Structure prediction request, 698 residues.
Amino acid sequence: MMRIVKGNEAAAIAAKLAKPDVVAAYPITPSTDFPEKIAEYVANGELPHTQFIPVESEHSAMSACIGASAAGARACTATSSQGLELMHEMLFIASGMRLPIVLYNANRALSAPINIWCDHQDSISARDTGWIQFYGENNQEALDLMLMSFRIAEDPRVLLPAMTCIDAFICTHTFEPVDIPSQEEVDAFLPPYKPTHVKLDPDEPMTLGPFGVPEYYQEMRYAQHLAMKNAEKVIDEVFVDFERRFGRKYSKVSPYMIEDAEIILITLGSVSGTTKEFIDKMRKGGKKIGMVKLTVLRPFPSKELIPLIKNARVVATLERNISLGYGGAIYADLAGILINEEKRPLLIDFILGLGGRDITFNDLEEIVKACEKLIEGERIERPVWIGVKKELV
Amino acid sequence: MSEATSLLASGHRACAGCGAAIAVRQVLEAAGPNTICVNATGCLEVTTTPYPQTAWRVPWIHVAFENAAAVASGIEAAYKALRAKGTIPKDKKPNVIAFAGDGGTFDIGLQALSGMLERGHDVLYVCYDNEAYMNTGIQRSSSTPFGAATTTSPAGKVIPGEMRKKKPIALIAAAHDIPYVATASIAFPADLKRKVKKALEVEGPSFLHILAPCPTGWRFGTEKTVEVARLAVETGVFVLYEITNEDPLKPIVTKKIKDRKPVEEYLKLQGRFRHLFKPVKRQDIIDKIQEEVDRKCKLFGVDED
Ligand SMILES: Cc1ncc(C[n+]2csc(CCOP(=O)(O)OP(=O)(O)O)c2C)c(N)n1
Ligand code: SF4
Ligand SMILES: [Mg+2]
Prediction:
């Protein structure tokens, strides 16, 4: 059924279709619609067994999800920015305890200064927490990726938490047509969660979250690493099954016009749409530009990315984040996977669109110009900041 | 309950004479095996679960330091949901008990505790109070009593130990107007167990504050734990009471004291108060402690005439 909904509602509908046992969440702009919607579903009897816990903080939201998941429940939450940071400590514990909690994150800039608009600093700063990370481009992807994240997270080969990240306001508050699957279709796609690895049950007492001494700690981390490796395969399987059932194709990396591309732009989230239009325009002018959109950031899609980008002259990352004192986070990931390739492109990172600054065709043109200079052999100091009003600094 | 079947098995790594371990045993004896425990980071958690060993014969989870109440909320909610869905039988309703130290309760965990109490989760929250952050090496908490020396409230040449008084945590819990709040002591196990049972019987949240003397941090002989705990009650330093929401403003003293002993008897047994006696006796500080205890005992109506 097609409906016109906001990104937040698309994510809430996905959660509803997954029939969660426990939702513990705390309001924060711009993801607040999510807990509101869940509360509404519960109040109207549309989620008859679900327990909605209106917690007193995001830290407690994730803590309650951890408790619920450890007790055998399907648990999910939603947050953004400061909220994701407040739960940061708990993110590591959720993954370390191998609890397949699902989180919806509205990508918003971090304080200070306080800012409610889009960038990716929040979830990028959480990329080492052991969570699977999906980035959606639009509201349909918000719904689809949320749904798939339950199945991927709960797969016995994975058992890791997963977050779906959607751009603040650009998606969360924009109405778009979204194809909403029926409950029957979702039930067939997503079986109930039946944990066997952890369960707090007096009939079978288990000790969870013990004191991990040096003799064992590293093995537990390694097991998490293997689970991430397994996720690479499981994500592909689930994407294929999803397409078979729902007709929408997903892949970890989506190339656009890259066959002959000399310059490839790497994107995350909603800017992918703008970038495609931009490429169409540039192509008309004869410029060989392509794009690769990343839908999965963790596990990092190294295998899929390398063959797509290694033959380009320049690969440019569009970064709505900054690791201060270094540069773009995606640049660092890409540099790491390319360094041992015999044939590899030049690589450069562009910092832009922070705190809700629009990313325009002019910005993208500036990026292409810088890439062309690189091709011509000019040296450019990186990271390159786009659109900074120097007179204000 | 015998050693062999105790729900907190012996052989854990807590110090000899650990009041916290005794408190947990007594709580579990009253609660029985149909119980799920949540444990905040601290001495109890660290000493009972060095992987791959565990002392717990009931399901147990540790997540972090400041969130035992929130984790317990999630567990309780999960069981509710799974019962409603029919995944588990309708009558499968284990007790959910959260254990946390004074640091995990009075300080860093207070927000999560308040949230859990306010939302009305059917959880028993037990604070085992050893009056400092013992796990990290005896730092002060907001439970550390006036005059006590810890590593962050040392007995210095100018400042004689902790200069703030203990936070009244049970009264703060009671201010949430929850069904049941009580204080208890390991030196009065029958009273403690009765309170645990009562707390578990009520629907909704309950809070139990147990004074759990720590021979290592309070610096007394390991054989004196129960004696110190008893003296805390008999001197009026730690008042045993309960509060129901029939009148949340009115604590009911469950152990009235006849001929209350002077606090000095309690203080002098413990190394953390040694600086009040040597090299010069700080009668001024001791008097101040006594005055405060007298005031509290009067307020609560501790003295039996
Ligand atoms: C967020 C966080 N801050 C600090 C610590 C370090 N820490 C672990 S246990 C502890 C003190 C515990 O004190 P208490 O709750 O009184 O329990 P006790 O060890 O005395 O039994 C501290 C400070 C931590 N684990 N997590
Ligand atoms: S330091 Fe104190 S509380 Fe910690 S284990 Fe030893 S006696 Fe128990
Ligand atoms: Mg303590």
In short: Chain B has a mean pLDDT of 97. Residues B 14-15, 18, 20, 43, 47, 130, 134, 214-217 surround iron/sulfur cluster (ligand 2) (CB under 6 Å). The longest strand of chain B covers residues 95-101.
